[in-house]
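Archive maintenance. Older records in this collection stored only the sequence; we are now back-filling the structure field for every entry so that each record is complete. The fields below show one back-filled record exactly as it appears after the update. Entries are processed alphabetically, and DUF6788 domain-containing protein is next in the queue.

ARCHIVE ENTRY
Title: DUF6788 domain-containing protein
Organism field: Halohasta litorea
Length field: 107
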Amino acid sequence: MSYEPPTPSAELPAEIVNTLNGYPPDQLQDVVRYAEALAEHKAREARLKDESDDDEIKERPVDLPDDVPTKATITIKEINDNRYYYWQWRDGDRVKSKYKGPVNSDK
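Back-filled structure field:
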C-alpha cells in the first residue's frame, strides 16, 4: 500500500474531491457503501425502464413465481451485511420486489 494519497479521477468535480478529503475514514466507508448502493439503484432503474419499454414477449423462467411478471429481473439487496436475491419489476411509476432467496444458499 502506498503512503501517497490516491489521485482522484479527472471526472470527479473538485468540490466533491475537496469535500471527501475532509472526511474521516469511517465516514468515507459510509460514502463508499452509499455510492455503491446508489449506483446499483440507478443502474437497476435504467434497466427496468429499458425492459418496460420492450414489448417483446419473453419466455417465462422456470423459477419465476406466478405473481411475478415475465419482465422482472433479479437484483441483489444487502440487508444487515447479508445479501439476498429479489425479483424486481416496474409497475407504473413504482418498482416492486419479491424475495427470491439468499445469495449464498447451498442450492
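Update note: The beta strands are 73-79, 82-91, 94-102. DSSP finds two helices and three strands in the chain.
Entry marked complete.
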